[in-house]
Amino acid sequence: MRGRWIRWGLPLLLLAFAGAGVAMAASASTHSQGGTVRAVKSKTYGMILVAANGKTLYRYTLDSKGINRCTSDATCAKYWPQLLIKATAKPTAGTGATAGLLGTIKAAHGMRQVTYAGFPLYFFAGDSASGQIKGQGFEKQWYVVNQKGAFVKHAVAATPAPTKSTSTSSGGGWG
To answer: What is the pTM of this model?
Structure first.
């Protein structure tokens, strides 16, 4: 009986552990984007920050400089994954981002969470592709971030397109 368990049970147990390790690695990689932060133009919100993969970055209103308050609630962390880098890496400023505003704070599992202007940065799980901004204004606590690191809570005013001016003259000609 013991030989049968070792022959069948042990390989299954090892396979289960290997599968869990792969799942954990896949989960970590979806939150880690190399730490590059850049700015892109949003039609609605002006210049906003995105990660290297083009996905929108957000700030949480309950956070403070250097303090992530989205860690104690499993639901928060599930829907708002952190922008993470390895502890030995440094975040990088891409086009439109200011290198002096980038930093990190300690995160779980030996990782570091990227900050901008001192505030932690997050993704929204509902943004499945680059360019999406589905987390904007969520529960009036989550907002996109501008190039200075501030919340963008409202749409920016669009610049009106120039209009053709028409002139009238009393002479009826090209005058």
So the answer is: 0.73
